[in-house]
Give the backbone structure.
Amino acid sequence: MLNQPHHLRYPTALTSSLTILHLLAPAPVGGLETVVATLAAAQRRAGHSVIVAPTLSGPGDGWNFTASLEHADVELVPLIVSRRGYLRELSLIRGLCRSRSVNIVHTHGYRSDIVGGHAGHESKIPVVTTVHGFTGGGLKNRAYEALQRFVFRRFDAVVAVSRPQADQLRASGVSDQRLHIIPNALAQHSAPLDRAAARRALDLPPNGLLAGWVGRVSREKGVDVFIDAVASIGDRIIQGVILGDGPERATEQARASSVAPGRFLWLGPIPDAARYFAAFDLFVLSSRTEGLPMVLLEAMDAGTPIVTTRVGGIPDLLSQAEGILVPPDDPGALAAGVRAALDDRPAAAARARAAQLRQRAEFDVGPWSDRYEALYRTLIARSSRAGARS
């Protein structure tokens, strides 16, 4: 059986505050960055000292992520190092652990898992990682992910965001003693825009059908499947709107212009994209692989009808009563899902309302943050007992 940290309860008022160090190397857009910003802000509201230390290696790195923390009242300490400045990064993290009396090191993503995890172990501080998903991709990336899975065996806690992901981690050698499942959560947005305002803000057509796609433009996210699906719908005029950036953007943008001229609008990375979901008649997630995608939680919270592939933890997040789920890597099935949502708008709206209610009932920030705190305190207590015995 997996350890279930959410069964542990520690009344916040009766416990001392913690100093928590979050480490990541932020991408321009992505769910990992949203998770870290949301969790750090929730932990600060709970009275903890929270340090977020992003590794930045070039001009413009992390600008979207750091902007998301502007009003979070957390301490932001950028680690400015070269792309391969791992020893410098290690030294900076060790210095932070020592100078700030850090209680927990929490890493996110393979670079921070490898470098930050090592720094935490050297500093004799409990180390937690949240595994946001594996992308596969080229040989270099697969090698990094293999190393990442190997170092997980030394972590004090490895958090999976879904049961399928936990199964993968167990198969790669992470023991049940270290493995925990804590699904992601979402803070409700304070200033979402309505349909007309969102379309104006994004400079989108005020009328007409728009299918929205939001995320990192990379193979595992399946933007090519989205393009092929929308391009195949010839019995009505529907445009695809793509918010995001990534290594596949130039290739897929050129291909989209070739196969369906004028059908796709590429808006690039949009800060705080969740504000604009009302602009879409439906939200489409076409991923080949996922953990538990934050962008899907955002679409659920916005009340936007959803068509998504059935991968990773998505079936645990969304049922057929709350969205349309289709097989991955199948443009025909995705197109059929889009048509079904558009052909019966009342049914699509009812599913969207059900998804919104489920998101707010089951994936709220307060209980989610409490689960992490309970896990942290368990590890700290275990570390203290081990230190006393040595």
Notes: The CA atoms of residues 37 and 115 lie 20 Å apart.
